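User: I'm putting together a small comparison set for a docking exercise, and I want a reference complex before I start. The sequence is below, and the ligand is pyridoxal-5'-phosphate. Could you produce the 3D structure with the ligand included, as structure tokens?
Assistant: Of course. I'll restate your input first, then give the structure tokens for the complex.
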Amino acid sequence: MCNAVEERGQLLDDTGPIAESEKRAARTFKADHLFFVTNGTSTSNKIVWNSLVGAGDIVVVDRNCHSSVLHAIILTGAVPIFLTPTRNLAGIIGPIPRSEFTPESIQAKIDANPFITDKTKKPRMLALTQSTYDGIIYNAEEITQTLDGHVDALHFDEAWLPHASFHELYSGMHAISDERARPRDTMIYATQSTHKLLAGLSQASQVLVREAENTALDQTIFNESFLMHTSTSPQYSIIASCDVSAADRVSSEPTDWWFDVWAPIRPRVRASLPARSGSSRPPRSGTASSRSMTASPCSTPSK
Ligand SMILES: Cc1ncc(COP(=O)(O)O)c(C=O)c1O
């Protein structure tokens, strides 16, 4: 099936079963909004960037980012300053030091950048690879707290981390969680390849959004960016696999087949993890939804 069929729902105008499925997935992944994407996280990244960043905006970017983020810089005409990861003697790329994430360090880079004339301009976005190909992940909670109000948006490229919110091992180490305080001003975006570590078909991806207390998702602009990067013939089987990926996680347990296969935890590590309450993670009631034309994270969206 190539073109949109009314009864199956439409990804582009966000109707029918697809809209329902995105709402369920938003609850499962604890996001305020969740959008299925059919051309991989390469496209999810560009959707997020084009919805937020304009020419001349300052962006703070992981120097070890995926090529799609570099393409997003080119597309938007943003002025990047880079967070520089460490390297070992063999040249293997390690983590970005914690000191790089402070507002003072970012300001020093802005001050030193000859392409930035207005040194008081707030960075529009900070983009971080949250898990690198080698498995380096950052304390997203700490980064969010440190930079809340100092950048307009945080973009965690979680292409390799769609499973993280379903296991205590990653507690605090993934972008979106409804168990942490909402940021006051800074919006959080996560882009995830459901085709990499969940049950998605190739190219299955999703964008997750957590709003700040004082900042809501601009639905109109986001929708336009989504349309800009999405085929008018999105593949239904990919969309269905996004639905399956989310549904599969609803009943996830730290001891379930998925984690036992992909991330087996040694008993000693398991013993050190905080105790879980309850046997599964039921969806947060009544707070998550997908796209909305209003500022409310609970209302029904359109695209
Ligand atoms: C960090 C990161 N971001 C984005 C992507 C692109 O993801 P996709 O293959 O779903 O387009 C990749 C692909 O490997 C990646 O490693």
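The domain at 22-88+96-250 is CATH 3.40.640.10 (Aspartate Aminotransferase; domain 2). Confidence is low (pLDDT under 50) at residues 277-302.
User: Thanks, that's exactly what I needed.
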